[in-house]
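Researcher: Let's try something more involved. This one mixes different molecule types, so please make sure each is placed in the same coordinate frame as the others.
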Amino acid sequence: MGNSLKNVQQAMKAFSAARDWDQFHDPKNLAEALSIEAGETLELFLWKTKEQIEKDLQNPEFKKELSDELADVLHYLVLLADKTGIDLEKASAEKLKEASRRYPVEKSRGNATKYTKLT
Amino acid sequence: MGNSLKNVQQAMKAFSAARDWDQFHDPKNLAEALSIEAGETLELFLWKTKEQIEKDLQNPEFKKELSDELADVLHYLVLLADKTGIDLEKASAEKLKEASRRYPVEKSRGNATKYTKLT
Amino acid sequence: MGNSLKNVQQAMKAFSAARDWDQFHDPKNLAEALSIEAGETLELFLWKTKEQIEKDLQNPEFKKELSDELADVLHYLVLLADKTGIDLEKASAEKLKEASRRYPVEKSRGNATKYTKLT
Amino acid sequence: MGNSLKNVQQAMKAFSAARDWDQFHDPKNLAEALSIEAGETLELFLWKTKEQIEKDLQNPEFKKELSDELADVLHYLVLLADKTGIDLEKASAEKLKEASRRYPVEKSRGNATKYTKLT
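Model: All components are placed in one shared frame. Result:
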């Protein structure tokens, strides 16, 4: 219940404070960690076809590995947002509003061309 | 105000569905996008000292760029979780429980050594 | 015409020295830059099918973008190797020898399973 | 002797051909692998201060890990260049020429500001 992003953020801050890890968590280190964990997430799909990925997603062991990686990404994301004073919900709402303007439905339907390249 | 992670996820799914972008959003592509956006986040800190980063964080323009990048990471994270059937809140709670066991407070205080290397 | 890796390394060192950029090039920053450039390389393929990529590779503008990204990756790679005292040719030869042992031809033919998972 | 980049490329192609791994090595997969390996390289520096990194670089075990990661990056780089028909030496020379123009010595000395932001 309540706000899950803020709940995760509070849990991570408490976890980190208990271990005195705050000293390592400057924005640059956290951005490195975020990028590294996103790379580990990608590694779970490397060399695989869509069919193999569909099959792997039926495998509880693979699912657990993926779940752990996504949690790691989320954890560094909320810590980085906290350290830099960014409200993730607000950031998301603003970005989505801008994206709606940049990628008008009628021009972008079924088209992944980056908005800078849309005529 | 409700569950923010699920709210963001619903907003992203609606945004994507309106543009018929669902066809591009297989897990592998989304994991690529997640990793690319995390790299763009890291780029905002590249070559900078802690002092410069502190100063940049007082700059509204920099803050907006960072806010947008964190939103992008969040958006691909919730889309990837949705496509692979992973509940991010549950994933976070499980991972945090395991991390608490792997990094006992007394052994890891002030020490960033990876748990695999803790004696 | 001589050793191309060492030539590229020398050219990058001279370029950097002329701009007094050596001060920014500690190993951690260079590893960040390497990772960011690799992410930008990946972005050139994002959302695209094999067919679209084949087509893009016929497009001189796309080819130039890709060429520039690969050059960036190479440049940070040789600078990082230089700063950390690693001989890339030797590193490559050693790694390839180990990989040959870890992935015996008869067991790994047509199989991308990571060697740790090969029975 | 000879051209080390082309030598590494030939060695990797032979290694891959012997295992029939060519089928996995489309440009997108190789770009993913490149990005993942660059992330693993970065992980070797995560949470560490300059002083710790200096110390680690005296440690043969750390040095070997780093050497292996740099070799992995190099290997996927030469394979990706091969698959996309890009000559890395030429790409490097062109990029360096452009960078010399974009970052004139007198304006960029001691200044890491991205050229787009140089006045």
